[in-house]
Write a structure and sequence with these properties.
With 271 residues, this protein is of the alpha/beta class. Helix content is 45%, strand content 12%. The chain contains eleven helices and five strands. α2 packs parallel to α11. The chain binds adenosine-5'-diphosphate.
């Protein structure tokens, strides 16, 4: 069960070095895994439709990862199962001048999905305790306060009907090197190659320390963190789908009541 395998209890420390990014759990290989994912995509679609018509809650999926870990692929292969009409993706880049002129949660809050919708955050408010920390973009005295602000903010969302799932796609530096080389060499992928990714790569250890602290301090019952071994793409997709199905099933989604005396209606014949 995803709850047990991929998350820690609130307060427990996340030790990323103890989680093998190439783990494939109990799954039986790529071929079977891809077939299984197809079935799960149908389950996800059905659950999302129910979320939409129920309308009492929204689902917010936060995706964080090192470069090349597969955020885009996860959105395409797993979250792509959802109806586009009921789904929105927000990607958070280096804050603009206007965004920097507000508190760090301003741009985030605006992108939270309304009730009935699924929202996907491709990067998130967590960048404020990750890249900001590692690259020393703000003093420690400032970013340290963010942990508490984040927990309070997520509690506000949860109490307003937003079910939050936070996923860290965990790849190994070796797998990232492979994927970077692939981007560097394959003409149709070269557009993705960014020298900035190499700057982040050399800070790998600092990023892992920052992730461990963020995951540990901001892992709550109402906004849990999951660590998904992501070296194997098929496995990553299966685990993310498992977490989402479980989360949606736990939401007790209901179809709205039908009109009164539904059986009494006769569908008119057309001549
Ligand atoms: P991605 O890597 O997500 O596909 P980009 O290549 O455009 O997208 O990278 C977005 C960049 O924006 C990343 O380097 C990320 O660290 C940076 N970023 C996101 N949020 C912040 C923030 N709050 N402060 C500084 N940099 C940020």
């Amino acid at each position: 069960m995803a709850e047990r395998d991929y998350r820690r209890l609130p307060g427990e420390r996340y030790d990323l070095s103890a989680i093998d990014p190439s783990d494939t759990g109990d799954y039986e290989g790529k071929k079977k895994g891809e077939k299984e994912l197809e079935k799960r995509r149908e389950v996800l679609l059905e659950l999302q439709r129910k979320l939409h018509v129920d309308g009492r809650n929204s689902l917010l999926v936060v995706l964080q990862a090192m470069d090349c870990a597969g955020k885009d692929g996860t959105i395409r292969h797993v979250l792509g199962a959802f109806e586009p009409q009921g789904t929105q993706v927000a990607s958070f880049k280096v804050p603009s001048e206007e965004e920097r002129a507000h508190d760090f949660l301003w741009r985030i809050h605006k992108a939270v999905p309304r009730l009935g919708m699924v929202g996907i955050f491709n990067r998130s408010h967590y960048e404020e305790v990750l890249v900001v920390r590692v690259k020393e973009l703000k003093p420690e005295a400032v970013w340290r306060t963010h942990f508490e602000h984040i927990n309070n903010f997520e509690r506000l969302l949860a109490e307003s009907g937003v079910t939050i799932v936070k996923i860290f796609l965990h790849i190994s530096p070796e797998e990232q090197a492979e994927r970077l080389r692939d981007r560097q060499q394959r003409p149709e992928k070269q557009w993705k190659f960014s020298p900035g990714d190499l700057e982040d790569r050399v800070r790998w250890k600092s990023y892992m320390a920052a992730y461990e602290e963020a995951l540990t301090l901001c892992n709550t019952d109402h906004a849990p963190w999951y660590v998904v071994p992501a070296d194997k793409k098929w496995h990553r997709n299966l685990v993310v789908s498992e977490i989402l199905i479980e989360t949606l099933k736990n939401m007790d989604l209901q179809y709205p009541d039908p009109v009164a005396d539904i059986d009494s209606y006769v569908i008119p014949d057309i001549e």
